Amino acid sequence: GKTNMFPLIQRCCFHTSFRLQKVTGLRLLLCAKNKTTWSSLGLQLRRDACPLSRPPSLKPAPVYAAQLQAFHTSLPASKKKTPPESEAESQRSEGSLKDAPKPALYLSLAGLVPFVVAPLAMAIHGNYYPEVAFAQVTYGALTASFLGGMRWGFALPEGSSAKPDWLNLANGIVPPVLAWQALLFKDATLGAVMLVMALGIALHYDVALLPPYPRWFQRLRVWGTVVMVLSLLATAALKLVLEAQTLEGTNNWQN
Hints:
It is a single chain. By secondary structure, the chain is mostly helical. The chain has a domain at about 115-120 and about 130-240. The chain is built from ten helices and no strands. The longest helix is centred in the last third of the chain and has 40 residues, at about 215-255. It is elongated, with a radius of gyration of 47 Å. The model is unreliable at about 15-20, about 20-25, about 30, about 35-40, about 50-60, about 70-85 and about 85-95 (pLDDT under 50). InterPro entries: DUF3429. This is TMM69 protein.
């Protein structure tokens, strides 16, 4: 049985290898006639051989490069903060009075008390007191001088956005000069009107003309100036009204 199987196996292997050699030889002869066909066959053989020679676990370099690039770009993107919905909303949130430091807010509110108390006290008693009106004008002159000097304090430090030039320093002197002029008037009504001008000019410098303060301080300046101006005008109006009532009462008593 072994002697019969060996020739059979030898014949099958010989005929199989001969057929493979014959087919491969015919393909090579046909491909040699055309150079372009030969080059395409070589490329095809390389493509077919590459997946076999490379382990299945390895990936081409461009795939790893793309994965690394996606990894490096995705991490910072996840750490980035989402931008605000609109620039106006961000400015409103940064410019509200809630963002003001507590000492600046409370001291500014306390500084408005003398302005409000003077006309309120005269309105409650129903009489005009020249001493109280003069005290209000004097305090207003000091406040206007402080606001003008604050511009110097903002412009002089190194690294400030406001330069110590003629514009900043000269405009800081204008409110004190007007405040001094307000104290020279014998009539407190004229002094109050002059102080309204001084406070309005100081507010214009701080908000619109010169380099800006923080937005919360600008809002604080606006509301504080409104209260001071209304208090001074209230004192001037009370003087006219109460003096007119007093004069009318005197005339009626004489008649």
